[in-house]
Amino acid sequence: MRHFDYGKLAERLWDIETLTCIAKIHECKGRQELYVRQKPEELERLVEIARIQSTESSNKIEGIVTTATRMKQLFAEKTTPRNRDEGEIMGYRNVLNTIHEHHDDIPVKPNYILQLHRDMMQYAGVSYGGHFKNVQNYINETRPDGTQVTRFTPLAPYETEAAVTAICESYQRTIAQEKVDPLLLIPVFICDFLCIHPFNDGNGRMSRLLTLLLLYRNGYEVGKYISIEKQIENTKDTYYEVLQQIDQGWYEETNDPTPFIRYMLKVILASYMEFEERVGLVNAAGTRSSAYDIVKKCVSEKIGRFTSAEVIAACPSVAKSTILRELKVLTEQGVIRKIGAGRSTCYLREDASE
Fold this sequence. Notes:
The protein has 2 domains: 6-279, Fic-like fold (Orthogonal Bundle); 291-352, Arc Repressor Mutant, subunit A. Helix content is 56%, strand content 5%. It has helices at residues 16-38, 44-61, 68-75, 84-102, 110-120, 157-177, 182-196, 203-217, 228-234, 236-243, 258-279, 291-300, 308-314, 320-332, and strands at residues 139-142, 148-152, 336-339, 346-349. A hairpin with a 6-residue loop joins strand 3 (336-339) and strand 4 (346-349). The radius of gyration is 22 Å and the shape is globular. 34% of the residues are buried. Residues 281-288 have low confidence and may be disordered.
C-alpha cells in the first residue's frame, strides 16, 4: 500500500494562481464572519435554500433524482421515500444536517466516516451502509461508442481500512502542525479518499460531504449559505475532467493533485462571491444597500427570463413583500419588463429587447 504524508505539502512551491485564489478566499471568509455576526437572522432563508440545493445537486451528479415538489416535501418531512432514489436523498439530507449542526464534534476518524456513510445509506435498502467495501470496485469510463473501459482500479477491500486510517491520521497530524493551509490539504485528502474508493456505493457523495465537514472544521462555512454541491453540478464537466487526472500515478505516489486543488479553490471562491452578492453586504460608503438597490442589482445580473421566486431566493436580506414591491417599481421605471400573469408571470431585463 502507498504511503501518505501530507506534511510534504509544506515543501511544495505553489503557482501564483493557486496562492492568489487562497488569499481571496481568506478575505471573503473574514467578511462573511463579520456579516454573520451582525445579521444572523437574515441568513436563515439562505441556509434552507442551500440545504435543499446541496442535497439535490450532489445526488443529481450521481443520477439520483426526484421532482422539485417531492424534494420540498421530503425536506419538510411531509412524506416518506417512495423509492431508493428518494431514500438516498433523505439519507444525504440527514447527514448534511448533521454536518451543518455538529461539525465541531465530528472528528476526522474512520469510525466517524463509517457512521456518516451508514446514515447516508440508511433508507437505501442495502446492507453495506456503514461498512467498508467487501468487493473490488472499479472506476470506469464510458467511451463515445457506449463501451466501458476500466480507467482506474482502487485499493482492494483488504487494504481499505488501513488506508482510510492512514489518510485520517496524516490529515490530523498535518492540521495540528499548521504548516499547510487547509485549503490545500483538504482537496488532497479528498483526492486520496476517492482513489481509495472505500465503499461499495456512495463514494462521490461521501467525498462531497467530507469536503463540507473539513471546510467547516477549518472555519470555511460558506457551504451553509451557498450550495457548494450546486457549484460543482454547474461545472460538472470540469469536475469530471479533473477527477480523471488525480489517479494517474497514484500507486507510485507521483500523481499531481494540483488540477483538483485549483478546481476546488475556484468552486469555494465562487461560493463566497455568490454569498456576498446575495446578502448585499455593504456599499462603498460602508452602509447597507437599500432594498431597491439590492433588488435592482440582482435583476441587472439576470440573463433571460426570471421569476419573482428566483429574486426572492437571491435576496435573503430583503422581505418577500418588499421584493415584490420593488419589482413593480422597476417594471414601472422600464428597467425590467413583466411577461405573463398569475402563476406564469416572469420578468425580462428591458435591455434584452432588440
